[in-house]
Every structure is written in C-alpha cells, then in structure tokens.
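Tokens as discussed.
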C-alpha cells in the first residue's frame, strides 16, 4: 500500500542519513582565510587581524574562522611561523647571491645585516607581529617556531665560524647572539627615530661600525 504522505514528507529509508546544513569546511576555505589574514596583517598589522574582517575578506562566516583556527592567537602563530621561515630563506638567498671577490666573512655578515634591513623595510608589519608576540610569556611554544628561530641563528653562526678567533663553539654562539641583538636593536631604533634624511643608510652605517669592531677583535685575538 502506497504512503499517503507527500514524497518530501515520507520517512527516510532505514540506514540512510540525510545531510543537514552547510557542507563542511575545506582546505580551500582554510587557505582563503589564511590569505585574507596575510593581507590584513601586511597592510594593517596585528590590530587588523579580527575574525570579522578575516571572514569578510575570505567570504566565510565568523564562526568558520574559529572552527578553522580555534582562536586568533593560534592564527597569529601560524602567520609568524611563515614569516620566520620566509625571513630565514631571505637570508640564505642573500648569502647564495655572493660569489667571487668580496665574499669574505665580514662581507657576508654585512650582506646578512642588509638582508635583515631589507626584509624589515618590505615586511615591517609582519616582522613587528613576530617581535610583539615573542615578548609574551608563552608556555610550550610550538617546536616548529623554536626550530625556525634557531635556524636564523645558525645562518649567522655559520659565517662567524669562518672568522679567526671563533673556533670555540661557546664563544661563537655568544657572538652570534650579540651580533643579532645589535643589528636588531640598530634597525628597530634607527628606522623609527633617526634624524638622518635616509634612516636605512644611517642604520647600515651604524651596523658597519659594529661588524668592523667584531672582525677586528677577532683578528687581533690570533
């Protein structure tokens, strides 16, 4: 006997589940959200990374952003890791571009310092996000983040290893971090506060003074 219910009202066959609601989020949705977040971070800094703005740019709902990443802090960590990796690749490329004469250790350290400055000038808001969030006390930072940070130091240390006077690995590691802090400090302070007409050139001149002092001291130690 046929059911008298309209077809759309007939009960579903046993064992058959009807799909409900919107389809699940896809990898394409995640990449769209990431790309929207990258753009917002590059143009507006950390303050621009709001779930509603990301959702609007990506064509998603606000709820979808939280489903994809959990919270904005988790999304920021993903973006910062991308910046770290790009920063390291930028420095490796700067070294790889050096061939022939003028590629001694001091020249390579100068090339790395210039690479740092160039990256900051091109990606200021992204690098600022890395620096600002790294100041927070975070328990159990992601292993990938720590490894990427160590990779940056390893690039500098590999060049310092070619300087005379740095055979001791402890001294070499200490010198690496001292140089890193010096270059970082000069660039951060000078770009924001230099009275020179060209702050970037002013920063490079200050960095040259530091690098020259380090390499001279290394030579005199022999």
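Sequence:
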């Amino acid at each position: 006997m046929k059911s008298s219910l309209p077809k759309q009202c007939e009960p579903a066959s046993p064992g058959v589940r009807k799909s409900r609601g919107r389809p699940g989020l896809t990898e394409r949705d995640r990449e769209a959200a990431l790309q929207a977040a990258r753009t917002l971070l590059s143009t507006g800094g950390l303050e621009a990374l709001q779930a509603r703005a990301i959702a609007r740019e990506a064509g998603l709902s606000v709820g979808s952003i939280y489903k994809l990443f959990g919270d904005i802090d988790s999304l920021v960590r993903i973006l910062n890791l991308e910046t770290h990796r790009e920063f390291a690749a930028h420095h490796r490329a700067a070294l790889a571009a050096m061939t022939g004469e003028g590629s001694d250790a001091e020249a390579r350290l100068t090339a790395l310092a210039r690479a740092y400055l160039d990256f900051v000038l091109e990606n200021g808001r992204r690098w600022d996000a890395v620096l600002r969030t790294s100041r927070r006390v975070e328990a159990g930072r992601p292993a990938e983040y720590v490894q990427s940070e160590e990779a940056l130091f390893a690039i500098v240390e590999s060049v310092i290893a070619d300087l005379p006077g740095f055979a001791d690995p402890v001294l070499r590691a200490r010198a690496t971090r001292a140089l890193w802090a010096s270059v970082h400090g000069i660039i951060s302070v000078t770009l924001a506060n230099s009275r020179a007409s060209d702050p970037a050139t002013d920063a490079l001149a200050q960095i040259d003074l530091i690098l020259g002092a380090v390499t001279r001291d290394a030579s005199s130690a022999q």
